[in-house]
Write a structure and sequence with these properties.
The chain contains 25 helices and twelve strands. It is an alpha/beta fold and 624 residues long. α17 crosses α19.
Length: 624
């Protein structure tokens, strides 16, 4: 780094440190040797064929070569950063067009094109070389930035920003850019060394700066004809080029570069594909679902979501058929094993499915609005302000380079008209409600300085402080201790009671769901197998899978009696079609019909709705 700093200082201070003007000639002192070969101290590095001081020309050559290369690097870096962000964030046809243009450019011989362009100019000034060298360099930056953006755009904290109503522009420049910005210094330094060589090459070939400007390549070319009598005329500028490139490359490999990237730090979607039908259902349709009640606030009908990484990979049926009703001011709990489709259902409701997701069919009606048909711009206004979401991974849901206070204030002001001071006070109050004794200290911290449980409470507070009408909570208490779990559950109840917020809470813990939920929905292999009032489902379960879940809960009574049971077997393969009941292979009450027909959700006398052939007649099965 010291060598690079030395070159930069020489380039900037050339007018003050050069002993002579670079174009001053002295025909009486032609080809004077350098001082170590017996030359005069007035010309430390000797003179050239026109009596011009070599040291002065090398110093001014640094000014031209390094500053032209650095300016070209800035132009290429800026263009590459912008195009890389756009290509990586929006993807699709935008990404394809930008990357194919870059491929075409890389296929063209740059040096020949540069010679043609510069050769047509009667006079070549620094800005001409800056543009010719800088513009084509964009693809080097764009490819690296694009690859980082592709990974970052699916991060939990970017998804969380989406649920809080952040626009695409804000997500790019406030959430994604600070994460990908750190790779630029290393790329820029490598590009700078290449540009120094490229500029010197063009000047050596006679396509560099026109007189009276001077560059290292030009000095090298001038000394070529006097190699026999004055070899230093070519060796000295060559050494300057080599020293500069070597200093830049060593700076790239410097162990301290990562720490120095703080100088470059900025201060402190996604699938637009709706959940509407795009291809025929993979399995037989169930019997018509009952009409939603008059007070239905969120109505999900026959929702199905598939995932496919690429054309040749198998289609994974994450959600096969889900019906869900949530009334205003109601808490609905969704419970089931991992892989049953609980989280995917929540993501589909909020239109936050991954790019690999494709929807099979379904309807999501929120307060009279069909969300599957909304354009992304309108959906973004609903997310955050009317529909909030708490994600499973609390640490990944918060931006690591922004303080907790900045993120909470931004979330509040994006959805509620108020000033920074008022928003910060509201954020502190929200943190106090979820158990933080010193909220001001938490607001000043970055997420990486908090534990996983503390980050979870911050995420809950950030979501609830906006006061959405519908809150989707995906495992909100997983990383919390028992005391904090109770505080969070009390806070969810208070938000419901005071503001009429509807809550959909997802959990593996059926006991926790029983503590807070008014209605319980039990899911298995992408389907609803039982739903109904929480008291009925938990005290008088009807579906064999619900009974098995309750039997596997380690309550003190069960442990004392030694009756704790597991559920044998595994979930069915999500990439395979299931002709019958998905729980048939693990069900103790399985019948022949369970392997051939998908059970429909039917009401039972106990008050629940159950998808099980134990509650259907053979005639109904044959009719379906």
């Amino acid at each position: 780094m010291l060598g690079l700093a030395f070159i930069v200082v020489v380039a900037i201070a050339a007018p003050w440190i050069a002993p002579h003007p670079p174009g001053q000639t002295d025909l009486s002192n032609v080809l004077a040797p350098p001082v170590w070969a017996g030359g005069d101290a007035a010309n430390l590095l000797g003179t050239d064929g026109l009596g011009r001081d070599v040291l002065s020309r090398v110093i001014y050559g640094a000014r031209s070569s390094v500053l032209i290369s650095a300016s070209a690097m800035l132009i290429g870096g800026t263009l590459g950063l912008i195009t890389g962000l756009i290509a990586g964030f929006f993807g699709g046809i935008v990404d394809t067009v930008i990357m194919r243009l870059g491929d075409i450019q890389l296929a063209l011989p740059f040096i020949l094109i540069a010679i043609v362009i510069l050769g047509m100019l009667p006079e070549r000034r620094p800005h001409h070389l800056i543009l010719v060298l800088g513009v084509p360099a964009w693809i080097v930056y764009a490819r690296v930035i694009r690859s980082r953006v592709l990974a970052e755009r699916e991060s939990d904290y970017v998804q969380a920003a989406t649920t809080l109503g952040a626009s695409g522009f804000r997500r790019i420049f406030r959430y994604i850019l600070p994460q990908v910005w750190g790779v630029l210094p290393a790329i820029a330094l490598v590009d700078l060394s290449n540009l120094v060589v490229m500029e010197s090459t063009l000047s050596f070939l006679g396509f560099g700066l026109s007189a009276p400007d001077v560059s290292w390549g030009q000095i090298l070319a001038d000394g070529r004809g006097s190699m026999a009598m004055a070899p230093w005329l070519s060796i000295i500028p060559g050494l300057a080029i080599m020293f500069t490139v070597l200093s830049i490359n060593l700076a790239v490999e410097s162990p301290g570069l990562e720490a120095r990237r703080r100088w470059w730090r900025l201060p402190t979607r996604r699938s637009k594909r709706p959940v509407g039908a795009t291809h025929p259902p993979a399995e037989p349709a169930d019997s018509p679902a009952p009409e939603p009640p008059d007070d239905g606030f969120l109505s999900v009908r026959d929702l199905a979501v598939d995932f496919q990484v690429h054309r040749d990979s198998p289609v994974v049926h994450a959600v096969r058929s889900v019906d869900l009703e949530v009334r205003r001011g109601q808490i609905v709990g969704i419970v089931g094993e991992s892989g049953s489709g609980k989280s995917v259902t929540a993501y589909a409701i909020s239109r936050l499915l991954a790019p690999t997701a494709r929807s099979a069919r379904g309807s999501v009606c929120f307060d009279g609005t069909e969300l599957t048909e909304l354009p992304e711009r309108r959906m973004r206004r609903i997310r955050g302000r009317r529909i909030g979401m708490i994600f499973q991974n609390p640490t990944g849901s918060l931006n690591p380079v922004l303080t907790v206070g900045f993120q909470m204030v931004e979330a509040i002001r994006s959805n509620r008209p108020m000033g920074k001071t008022q928003a910060r006070a509201l954020a502190a109050e929200a943190l106090r409600d979820v158990g933080f004794g010193n909220p001001e200290d938490v607001l000043r911290r970055h997420p990486f300085r908090l534990s996983g449980g503390q980050n979870q409470r911050v995420m809950i507070a950030m979501t609830m402080v906006v006061e959405p009408e519908l809150l989707l909570a995906d495992e909100p208490t997983t990383a919390l201790d028992v005391t904090t779990q109770a505080q969070v559950l009390d806070q969810l109840r208070r938000v419901r009671d005071e503001h009429g917020v509807s809550v959909v809470i997802i959990s593996h813990d059926i006991g926790l769901i029983g503590e807070i939920a008014d209605e319980v929905v039990v899911m298995y292999a992408g389907r609803v197998c039982e739903s109904g009032p929480a008291e009925q489902v938990l005290l008088d379960p009807q579906h064999p899978y619900t009974k098995a879940l309750l039997s596997s809960v380690p309550t003190p009574e069960v442990i004392a009696a030694g009756n704790l049971e597991g559920i044998p077997g595994d979930l069915p393969d999500a990439s395979s079609a299931i002709p019958g009941c998905p729980f048939a292979a693990r069900c103790p009450a399985v019948m022949d019909v369970c392997h051939t027909a998908v059970p429909a959700l039917v009401p039972v006398p106990a008050g629940q709705t159950v998808a099980c052939h134990l509650y259907t007649t053979e005639a109904e099965v044959l009719q379906r």
